[in-house]
Amino acid sequence: MPTNFAVQPIDATFGAVITGVKLATVDDATLAELRKVWLQYGLLVFPGQFFSNAEQIAFAKRLGPLEFEMSALSNVKEDGTLRLEKDNDDRMKVLKGNMGWHMDSTYMPVQAKGAVFSAEEVPTIGGHTGFCDMRAAYAALDDATKAKVEKLQAYHSLHYSQAKAGHDTKKKADGSYNGYGFHDGPVPLRPLVKVHPETGEKILVIGRHAHNIPGLDKDESERFLQELTDFATGDPRRVYHHDWRPGDAVLWDNRRLMHRATPWDYTQRRIMWHSRLAGDPRSEIALNYEKEAAVA
Questions:
Q1: 179 contacts 172 by C-beta, under 8 angstroms
Q2: Shortest CA distance to 105 belongs to which of 61, 71, 145, 133?
Q3: What is the pLDDT of residues 54-86, one digit of tens each?
Q4: Model confidence over 273-296: pLDDT tens digits?
Q5: Which domains does the chain have, with CATH numbers?
Q6: Which residue in 101, 51, 106, 54 sits closest to 250, CA to CA?
Q7: How far apart are CA 199 and CA 120, in angstroms?
Q8: pTM above 0.90, yes or no
Q9: What's the start-to-end Cα distance of the chain, in Å?
Q10: Contacts of 237 (CB under 8 A, 6+ apart)
């Protein structure tokens, strides 16, 4: 156990709270130890970091290449005014869509490795972020279901998941959302079970973006994927919802965990900052992009 920071496991199958370290100035040796703990627990919570945007980006870059440096997940506009729920603009639709369980960027050719996420302002009630351990979910499946899911794949699309939730988005047309994630190429196809490239453990890959399992009709596919999600998230030992405080930061392994936002009173401000770690194409590329990547 490292001696230069404290690790307090969360009461779940994953996750730990880390204290005694300032991420903006962490030295290389301590960061290497933190990375080992991250792979062990999947989610690390760092209270009271109070990152500036530049500090968060710099820290995230030390963990590897970034899919993108910084994105605001907020109901506060650039001019400081609140987005009104009744207006339901494209950014509000994305915020609401994120309340479904998902893994980041499964709808892109290369799935994200993880994320650094921090809180600037939080509402008094709600606005939590939930996480679900998909390693433990796979392990808990009965043998027959394991045998079934290991033979199946599903397509992943943000177009699909937003439309299914009733949050159709105009993409770049009205300028209210930058269009990231609304991928226009072939819809990525991913196995329902993947092997984590660093731990070697099997992970169940599902979530709101997954749909249209080849070999199953549409209704059967949707029903089966929903059953898997309900199973994964149905055991409280596999789920943790973080109750944010200003200055908190988290680091999660997107290859292992699903996550979601929870609703809050939209008349209250919520400003969160997301830096996304790029996945390794050798392990995170979609099945139907592998040949293209090999040519490149």
A1: yes
A2: 71
A3: 999 999 999 999 999 999 999 998 899 998 877
A4: 999 999 999 999 999 998 765 544
A5: 6-280 (3.60.130.10)
A6: 51
A7: 32
A8: yes
A9: 42
A10: 12, 13, 136
